[in-house]
């Protein structure tokens, strides 16, 4: 019995003597363990045949885990920033020591791309307009402002482009106006609705507002200009008049400050192009006509009842004569007609 105890102690002491020099291969095909089993003495797993491990308690190579302890644990893997970290060591068995977990090397994070800001464009050069500023984006450089051009000089509106008016010797864009009328009947007897504005009937220039002329029986803007002024200073003192299209327009606060054919618009006396009803009651009409929507109309049962000597040749809603434009409107502004045609009484002509 003593001999059996001495041999393992001797083997452990012998192995410990060489452990400082690392693992070495030991082959003892004649060695036997308890129960007659063949074994190989070892210091570490490298001393054992393939598929066996070194039991640190007995100093023998064993298949799988030793009889006195569990099998060796396997190392796991864990994540780190930008890659993977080494896992933890395997769990220790009752007998054998857990294996050492493999250390994962984290992959390097990608380098962020460096964007170069786009350079803003150059502002457009407009007539009298200030050039735009280049847009500022993320990292973008603002564009250079456009060159401001002075307004075109003029003596009359005919010197300016479409949509501009000659004001105090310079072409200025006309503000977008709201249509004032749709049909001739809204403008009064003898007047017409052209491009959304009323043009009163006339026999001479005296029947028209400031700056207008009488042409083809209607008061219209003078495309050639009034010829009375170019600059505001050309207008008679001490009035603070404004020179528009060669005519001096006086300042005002109400219609009463202006002439009989003008209205006060935005502080200046301008030709009156507003709608004007021709009647307020049937008593204002003659020949048995009826006042309908501010205009005296004939009654009818069919188109044949409407007098062909007037424009109201269609028997319309309610049994009253109306014009073709009122019966079937096509437009309200010239722009809706296209080309060089004009919108008169809701018809393109």
Summarize, please.
The chain has 349 residues and is mainly β.
Structural overview:
The chain has 349 residues and is mainly β. It is built from two helices and 20 strands. It has helices at 2-18, 324-327, and strands spanning 52-55, 60-63, 77-80, 83-86, 164-167, 170-173, 192-194, 197-199, 212-215, 218-221, 242-244, 247-249, 262-265, 268-271, 290-292, 295-297, 314-315, 321-322, 343-344, 347-348. The strands form ten sheets. A two-stranded antiparallel sheet has the order 1-2. Strands 3-4 form a two-stranded antiparallel ribbon. The chain has a two-stranded antiparallel ribbon with strand order 5-6. The longest helix is centred in the N-terminal third of the chain and has 17 residues, at 2-18. The model is unreliable at 1-37 and 65-148 (pLDDT under 50).
């Amino acid at each position: 019995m003593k001999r059996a105890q001495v041999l393992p102690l001797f083997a452990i002491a012998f192995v410990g003597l060489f452990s400082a020099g690392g693992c070495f291969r030991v082959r003892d095909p004649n060695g036997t363990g308890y129960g007659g089993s063949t074994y190989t003495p070892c210091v570490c797993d490298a001393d054992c045949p393939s598929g066996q491990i070194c039991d640190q308690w007995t100093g023998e190579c064993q298949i799988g885990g030793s009889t006195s302890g569990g099998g060796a644990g396997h190392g796991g893997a864990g994540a780190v920033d930008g890659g993977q970290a080494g896992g933890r060591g395997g769990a220790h068995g009752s007998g054998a020591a857990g294996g050492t977990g493999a250390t994962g090397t984290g992959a390097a994070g990608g380098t962020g791309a460096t964007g170069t800001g786009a350079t803003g464009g150059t502002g457009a050069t407009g007539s009298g307009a200030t050039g735009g500023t280049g847009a500022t984006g993320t990292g973008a450089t603002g564009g250079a402002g456009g060159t401001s051009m002075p307004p075109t000089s003029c003596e009359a509106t005919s010197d300016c482009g479409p949509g501009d008016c000659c004001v105090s010797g310079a072409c200025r864009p006309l503000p977008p106006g709201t249509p004032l009328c749709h049909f001739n009947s809204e403008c009064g007897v003898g007047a017409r609705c052209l491009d959304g504005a009323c043009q009163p009937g006339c026999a001479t220039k005296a029947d028209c507002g400031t700056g207008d002329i009488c042409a083809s029986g209607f008061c219209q803007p003078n495309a050639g200009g009034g010829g009375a002024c170019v600059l505001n200073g050309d207008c008679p003192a001490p009035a603070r008049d404004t020179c528009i299209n060669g005519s001096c327009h006086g300042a005002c606060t109400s219609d009463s400050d202006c002439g009989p054919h003008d209205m006060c618009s935005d502080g200046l006396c301008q030709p009156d192009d507003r709608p004007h009803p021709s009647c307020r009651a049937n008593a204002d009409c003659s020949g048995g006509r009826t006042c309908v929507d501010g205009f005296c109309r004939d009654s009818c049962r069919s188109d044949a009842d409407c007098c062909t000597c007037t424009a109201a040749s269609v028997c319309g809603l309610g049994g009253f004569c109306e014009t073709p434009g009122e019966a079937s409107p096509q437009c309200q502004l010239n722009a809706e007609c296209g080309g060089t045609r004009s919108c008169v009484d809701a018809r393109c002509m």
